[in-house]
Recover the amino acids of this structure.
C-alpha cells in the first residue's frame, strides 16, 4: 500500500470518527475541505490552548513554542506545558530568534526597548532603547550583506507599520544594536517600497520577505536585504537609507518584469506592464486579504497567514532561485477565525522527516492557540499503534 493511500485511508477513518462524535463527544472545531496533496484534509485539529493573558504573538523556534503577552514571554513545549517565563515587560508586541547565539529578541513598546534573552532560560542578557522606532509588528534576523558591517554578528529587522518602514540594525554582543538604514520605506510605488509592513521572514535562500497590508496591495514582497551602498542622501550627516532591492519569486521572462514576479498576492503578471504596482484584497488561491505572519518548514515551504480570509496558505519552494508555487490552503471562518500569527514543528527524528508535522496558529478574537497535525504524520502515528491497541 502506498504512503499516500495509507494517509487517505487514515484520514477517512479519522473523519468518520469525528462525524460520529459530533453529537456526543464534546465541542469540536468543524473540519474544512482545503486543497492539497495529502488526501482529503491536509491538517486535522489536534488540541487548543487559551493562556490567561492576551496573546500578542506566537512563534516556534529554538526548542519550543514561544507565546508573547503584553507583560511576559513564555516558552512552552508542544503540549502547551509551561517551561520558562520572563516577567517584567510592559507592552510587548514582537519577538524573533537568533539561532546562532541561542537568543530571542523582544520588543517592548511601553519603554521603546529591544531586549535579548537566553532562548532556554529566558534570562535577560541585554537591552537598548530605540526611540526612533514607533511601533513593531514583527522582527527577523538576516545576514545578507554583513560584510559591510564587519563588527556585527547579524542584521536585525524591525517592521514598523506606524512609521511605514522596516528598520535595520546591526547586532553584536559587545555593542548591542546600531542603526544601519532600512530594508524598505514607503517612498515610492514599486515593489521595493512596502507601504504597510507587517510580518517578516528570512526565507530558505536568505532573502527577506515582508507582508505589505496596504489595502491596495495585500502582498508578500521578496527582497535581497543586502544594504544598497548607492542608496544614499546628499547630506553626509544624516542616515543613508541603504535599502534592499526586490528579488523575484518567479521569472516571467518579460523584458520589464511585472509586479507579479516580485510578490505573492494579487498583482499584474502581463509583460505589457499594464497594472503598475497595484494589487488588492482577494480570496483567490495564492492571494491575500491582510497577510499578517510568515514561517517556513525544513523544506523551505512558506506558510503565510491570510488573516482577512481566515486561513493560512502554503507555497512550495523549488530551490536554486526557481519559481515559488502555490500548494494548498487550510482554514475557514469556522476553523481558523481571525488567524494572527503562526509557528510550526518539523519531526526530524523520523526517516524521512515529516516537515510541518504540527502547526500552531494564534487566533486573535478568541485569544486561543490551535494545534494542528498533518494528515501525513497522523497516518504515521496510526501505523505505529500496536494492533491490540486499535479500537
Amino acid at each position: 500500500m502506498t504512503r499516500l493511500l495509507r494517509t487517505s485511508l487514515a484520514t477517512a477513518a479519522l473523519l468518520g470518527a469525528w462525524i460520529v462524535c459530533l453529537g456526543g463527544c464534546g465541542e469540536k472545531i468543524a473540519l474544512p475541505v482545503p486543497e492539497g496533496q495529502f488526501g482529503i484534509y491536509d491538517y486535522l485539529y489536534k488540541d487548543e490552548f487559551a493562556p490567561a493573558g492576551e496573546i500578542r504573538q506566537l512563534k516556534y523556534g529554538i526548542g519550543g513554542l514561544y507565546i508573547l503577552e503584553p507583560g511576559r514571554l513564555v516558552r512552552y513545549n508542544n503540549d502547551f506545558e509551561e517551561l520558562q517565563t520572563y516577567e517584567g515587560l510592559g507592552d510587548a508586541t514582537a519577538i524573533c530568534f537568533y539561532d546562532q547565539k541561542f537568543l530571542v529578541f523582544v520588543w517592548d513598546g511601553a519603554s521603546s526597548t529591544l531586549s535579548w534573552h537566553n532562548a532556554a532560560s529566558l534570562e535577560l542578557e541585554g537591552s537598548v532603547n530605540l526611540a526612533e522606532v514607533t511601533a513593531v509588528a514583527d522582527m527577523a534576523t538576516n545576514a545578507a550583506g554583513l560584510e559591510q558591517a564587519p563588527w556585527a554578528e547579524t542584521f536585525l529587522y524591525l517592521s514598523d507599520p506606524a512609521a511605514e518602514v522596516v528598520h535595520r540594525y546591526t547586532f553584536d554582543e559587545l555593542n548591542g544594536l546600531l542603526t544601519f538604514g532600512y530594508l524598505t520605506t514607503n517612498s515610492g510605488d514599486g515593489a521595493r517600497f512596502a507601504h504597510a509592513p507587517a510580518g517578516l521572514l528570512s526565507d530558505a535562500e536568505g532573502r527577506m520577505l515582508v507582508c505589505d497590508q496596504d489595502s491596495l496591495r495585500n502582498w508578500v514582497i521578496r527582497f535581497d536585504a543586502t544594504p544598497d551602498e548607492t542608496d544614499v542622501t546628499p547630506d553626509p550627516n544624516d542616515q543613508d537609507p541603504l535599502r534592499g532591492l526586490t528579488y523575484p519569486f518567479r521569472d516571467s521572462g518579460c523584458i520589464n518584469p511585472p509586479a507579479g514576479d516580485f510578490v505573492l498576492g494579487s498583482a499584474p503578471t502581463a509583460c505589457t506592464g499594464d497594472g503598475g504596482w497595484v494589487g488588492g484584497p482577494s480570496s483567490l488561491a495564492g492571494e491575500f486579504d491582510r497577510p499578517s505572519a510568515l514561517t517556513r518548514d525544513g523544506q523551505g515551504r512558506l506558510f503565510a497567514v491570510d488573516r482577512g480570509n481566515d486561513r493560512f496558505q502554503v507555497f512550495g519552494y523549488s530551490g536554486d532561485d526557481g519559481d515559488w508555487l502555490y500548494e494548498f490552503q487550510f482554514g475557514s471562518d469556522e476553523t481558523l477565525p481571525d488567524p494572527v500569527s503562526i509557528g510550526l514543528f518539523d519531526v526530524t527524528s523520523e526517516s524521512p522527516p515529516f516537515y510541518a508535522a504540527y502547526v500552531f496558529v494564534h487566533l486573535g478574537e478568541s485569544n486561543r492557540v490551535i494545534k494542528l497535525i498533518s494528515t501525513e504524520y497522523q497516518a504515521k502515528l496510526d501505523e505505529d499503534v500496536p494492533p491490540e491497541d486499535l479500537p
Helices lie at 3-21, 375-383. The radius of gyration is 21 Å.
